[in-house]
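--- STAGE predict ---
source: upstream dedup step, 1 unique chain passed
mode: sequence only
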Amino acid sequence: MSNRDQELKKLAYEEVEKHKEAVQNDRFRLGYHLMPPVGLLNDPNGFIQFNGEYHLFYQWNPFHTGHGTKFWGHYTSKDLVNWEHHDIALAPSDWFDKNGCYSGSAIEHDGKMYLFYTGNVKDENNERESYQVLVESKDGYSFEKKGVVVELPDEYTAHFRDPKVWKRGDDFYMVVGAQSKELTGKVALMRSKDLYTWEHLGAIAGAHMGSIEDFGYMWECPDLFELDGEDVFIFSPQGIEPEGMLYNNIYQAGYFVGKMDYENVRYNHGEFVEMDRGFEFYAPQTTEDEKGRRILFGWLGMPEEREEDHPTIEHKWIHAMTIPRELRLTEGKLYQLPVEELKQLRQKEVNYDQVQLDSTSQAFAGIEGERLELELETLGNPTSDLTIELRNHASIIYSPEKKQFTLTRVSFVDGKTIEERHCYLDALQNLRVFLDSSTIEVFINDGAEVFTARIYPEADELGISFKSEKPTSVQLKAWMLY
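--- STAGE serialize ---
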């Protein structure tokens, strides 16, 4: 470890100690979501199961709650439920990453863990340089930077970042999010025999390729993997204009389903689909675990969009990870399911069988609180609007007439404005809602649609109520979560 590396890590740990009390005193700290010990958390990085443990790294600015120089923080778990925070994995201590160790991925090879990330550099004129860097680890806890393995290809601007690496046959492949010289989003494909020497094969998707004329000015956080016989490509395009119910956040995260043509260096795909219809979800990353599951974490945040207004700022921290989600592909659609292990969080169960909802708001004993899992199953599709009010700060509304599902929340900017996000929904069959101290994640129809958001209720706002404009029969279950 270099002197600069030691110095930066020491400064980061001093920030953790300095603000520990302020952070711990925030009633919006979460119970079962991953958070930074201080400062700002953003993209999940290097998600991998290695030697029987899940490793999740994350973008971390320990010095303040804005975006700036980034480290890699590090969590591990044996069960995706109980997590341990470790020493800083990567610090921006070298010439090729002096302005930030940006996002990347992990792969296991010959018993070692290899990390790939983007080294961000700004010159004296504030012009950006980007380098793809390799890191080696024998045990998953100590890390040795091996240096730059990919320089910027001529076809792209310096917005060239977030390498995701996998092995196919005898070759290793890497996708990198990119921006063309025409300032349009692309994804580049690289190939290697040894993880050290990489060949740029070209762009496999982006503007003016296939059916895409223009789709944003930058594609971030690419992730290409096989699932149920198809090649799924997850990415986060920037610069997409809103279209009705679609694309209403500042940036998006979504996927294509298609086939990767390695021989002709082209990804042939269908339409873009948003992965999460809520307010805060970005930069998701996946891994395949030893059980063969494709598991995803997303950043439960949104870059630059009103970040300074989150009430956690005064307590010296901001943002979190989503709960881990298993991905499944059914008839070309990606489903997201809370991983089975999260049932370990359940404590006391309450069960209400064949409840008749009507136009009067009803509350049910045991279905309230800060940290809760709620299941609702409809006994026949509702014939009128069904509404669930959550802690006076969010509501779930299904309208069969409009075939529309809506999540509303009270804006954290002024505490008054009601904000809405929507999706089309032919029928409501079931819901799973995960509430934490200041988050909500809603899984609809076995994960066919998902809504994620931050909410900031008062400490005594714990109630949950249900109503339906016309009588509707449902089954309700709930668990307090520790």
